[in-house]
Each structure stands twice: as structure tokens, then as C-alpha cells.
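Field log, afternoon session.

UNIT: design team B
ACTIVITY: writing a sequence onto a fixed backbone
BACKBONE:
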């Protein structure tokens, strides 16, 4: 829940658009008072599959900006979010850094209109838990159910980048954290390991922004 609270704080500092924060969680008492909790729609849903709740038509009305909680915001997002809102037909996202299992679609950042993708949620309800071990997880399972995807990196290619696959270099079993980052970079995706709390004492940039 520390991650959810820090995500809200980072958005407050870096998004010049009025918004309300929500978190799907079974631990509402651990959320900041500025975040409205949403009870999980189904019991015993594991890991990333909880993202499928976002597509339900029971979510709050309006446009949804979703970010994985292990994404660190280091600069203002307003231009990219406004572009997504003004140009999306169905959903806006960033391309997956390695097109995992053939899926260009990444679910780590999404912009879409609440309730417009309820068919995906209904398919999920009918398919879970049989798909629990689906190779590639939620985003690979979701990808073929989307028709019109606006890939934000086609307009803003270095706005959001993967720490593991696009920024750091590998050495032995670890990663060498970059000392210089692209000027256009606004979001660092910490999917997998390490997580922000594991590098905060080694990387001043994360200590500065992940709060």
C-alpha cells in the first residue's frame, strides 16, 4: 500500500489535470485519505489479473488513467495524458518493451473511457481461474480483444521506458543503473526486479521522486 500512496503523490505533483484517485484493494485502511478504495469485484483473484476489474462497467464514470504501482514518475505527464485523452478511439497505452509473447500491448499504463471495454471484463469472469497460468499474463490475454490501440510511444518515444530492458545494462546477475537518462523520460517502469524500494538508497533520482 506504500506503493499506491506514493503513486498518488507522484501524480499530484506531475499531472496538471483535475483527477480523483482510486485503488482496487482489500486493505482500504492502509490508503491515504485522498484515495478512494474500490473493493475487488471477485474473491481470490491473483496478481496482475486484478487489472481486469478496470474494464468492468462498475468502475467510476469518466476517463481512466491506470498506472502500475511500481512505475516511478520523474517529470510532468500532462502533455502525454492530454494527447491520449484527445486522440484515443478505444484505449491508449505504451508498447511493451520486449513485446512479450508477441503482445505489443502493455497494461502497465492505460487510458480509456470507463465502461467501454466491459466485454473484456465479462470474458474474464467467464474464463477465470482457468486462465490463471495463461502464458504472458493479463496483457497477452487482453491484447487480441482490443481493436483500436493508440500507442503513445509512436508520438512520445522516450516518455516511458523499462529499467530492465531499455535503461539499465546487465552485469553478472545484477543491473548497472544508468547515470544519464533521456531528457524526454517521464516514467520509469520497474516491472520485475529490482523494485523502487530496493534501489532507493543507491539511486538518488528514485529517492527524490518516489515519495
Amino acid at each position: 500500500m506504500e506503493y499506491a500512496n506514493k503513486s498518488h503523490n507522484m501524480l499530484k505533483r506531475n499531472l496538471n489535470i483535475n483527477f480523483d484517485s482510486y485503488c482496487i484493494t482489500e486493505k482500504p485502511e492502509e490508503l491515504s485519505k485522498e484515495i478512494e478504495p474500490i473493493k475487488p469485484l471477485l474473491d481470490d483473484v491473483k496478481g496482475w489479473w486484478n487489472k481486469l476489474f478496470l474494464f468492468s462497467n462498475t468502475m467510476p464514470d469518466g476517463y481512466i488513467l491506470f498506472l502500475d504501482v511500481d512505475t516511478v514518475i520523474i517529470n510532468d505527464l500532462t502533455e502525454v495524458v492530454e494527447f491520449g485523452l484527445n486522440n484515443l478511439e478505444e484505449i491508449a497505452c505504451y508498447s511493451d518493451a520486449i513485446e512479450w509473447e508477441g503482445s505489443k500491448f502493455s497494461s502497465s499504463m492505460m487510458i480509456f473511457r470507463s465502461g467501454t471495454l466491459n466485454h473484456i471484463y465479462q470474458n474474464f469472469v467467464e474464463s477465470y481461474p482457468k486462465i490463471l497460468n495463461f502464458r504472458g499474463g493479463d496483457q497477452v490475454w487482453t491484447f487480441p480483444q482490443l481493436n483500436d490501440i493508440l500507442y503513445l510511444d509512436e508520438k512520445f518515444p522516450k516518455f516511458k521506458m523499462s529499467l530492465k530492458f531499455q535503461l539499465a545494462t546487465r552485469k553478472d546477475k545484477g543491473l548497472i543503473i544508468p547515470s544519464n537518462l533521456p531528457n524526454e523520460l517521464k516514467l520509469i517502469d520497474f516491472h520485475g526486479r529490482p523494485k523502487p524500494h530496493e534501489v532507493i538508497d543507491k539511486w538518488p533520482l528514485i529517492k527524490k521522486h518516489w515519495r
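LOG NOTE: The chain has one domain: 2-209.
NEXT ACTIVITY: expression trials, pending approval
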